[in-house]
Amino acid sequence: MDKYLDDDDTARFEALAMPHLDAAYNLARWLTRNEHDADDLVQNAYLRAFRFAGGFRGGDARAWLLTIVRHTYYTALRDGQAERGDVSFDESLHDQENGGDPADIFASHDAGRTLNAALARLPTAFREVLVLKEMDELSYKQIAEVTDAPIGTVMSRLARARQMLLSYLKPDVAGE
């Protein structure tokens, strides 16, 4: 039986979950490959987390929330809500540089787009461990908890993800 949450429960949830909103969105963005789907995924995951916050018994709140984001994503896939697009998010697209050389700004944007495209090519299992490690700075133990995989598997996936990413970023010698 669900109990009604009072203001104290809401405040506790906000203190627990809101500091990790950026990490949740970052993971969602790379899982869905689409800004709008990432927004929806984070909203659904946070609703689930809010609903089950009473079951959180301490520990690593960020890993707990990222696990919920990941499970929400895979549940949506299982239930037939396939990935709709392959749109990489380019954070710097609308970023205002303070005075900089236009050629440097363009090169920076081009490098960002190249990296985003390479990341988007990675299979989801590899992309998620790379994002969790390199962008969200989770430990191997935290990544293992989020992905429900042994630490050895996390380390192996991370190594393979890095190798694949580097191979995607190497210039095509024949084409240049």
Give the key terms.
DNA-binding, mainly alpha, Rna Polymerase Sigma Factor, Chain: A, 2 domains, 176 residues, Arc Repressor Mutant, subunit A, 0% strand, globular
Q: How would you describe this protein?
A:
- It is built from eight helices and no strands.
- By secondary structure, it is an all-alpha fold.
- The chain has two domains: 1-87, Rna Polymerase Sigma Factor, Chain: A; 121-176, Winged helix-like DNA-binding domain superfamily/Winged helix DNA-binding domain (Arc Repressor Mutant, subunit A).
- Helix 2 crosses helix 3, helix 3 (35-51) crosses helix 4 (61-78) and helix 6 crosses helix 8.
- Belongs to the sigma-70 factor family. ECF subfamily.
- Residues 18-81 form the RNA polymerase sigma-70 region domain.
- It holds the Pfam family Sigma70_r2.
- It comes from Duganella sacchari.
